[in-house]
Amino acid sequence: MLDHATQSLLTRANAARRQGRRDQMAEDALARTFDCERRLAVYGTLAPGCSNHHELAACPGRWSRGEVNGHLSHREYPLLVPAEDAPLVAVQVLQSAALPAHWEHLDAFEGGDYCRVLAPVRCGAKTTVANLYARRD
Predict the structure, then answer these.
(1) β-strands 88-95, 78-82: how paired?
(2) Is the pTM of this model over 0.70?
(3) Residue 75 confidence (pLDDT)
(4) Is residue 4 part of a domain?
(5) In this structure, is residue 49 part of a structural domain?
(6) In angstroms, what CA-CA distances link 107 with 19, 29, 39, 56, 59?
């Protein structure tokens, strides 16, 4: 699990992102610790073998399994709302140096139903932070 200071940085960064802004200090601190700008956790159609995985073709990297606490629902596509007290949802985590150059494309592809947030991801015994497309509130 993440310590209180890291959780506070996540809260600040995500609040700003949901308002269409960036909390640069929080983002920079998280990036230094977790290299999160090069990590994407997926739980739906962007995952390997799924219908929209081709959207990540320009982002070669390493995939690993993980888990995120959240509430998963389905409309036309899966929608996840990360929440500390929610059940675990299986995700796949892409680590790619190419992701920072592709966030704008991926944000546009995901559209208005989703907001890219930072989420704690358990990968085995370790917890890291990754970008994740969450249901927009």
Answers:
(1) unpaired
(2) yes
(3) 81
(4) no
(5) yes
(6) 15, 22, 14, 12, 14
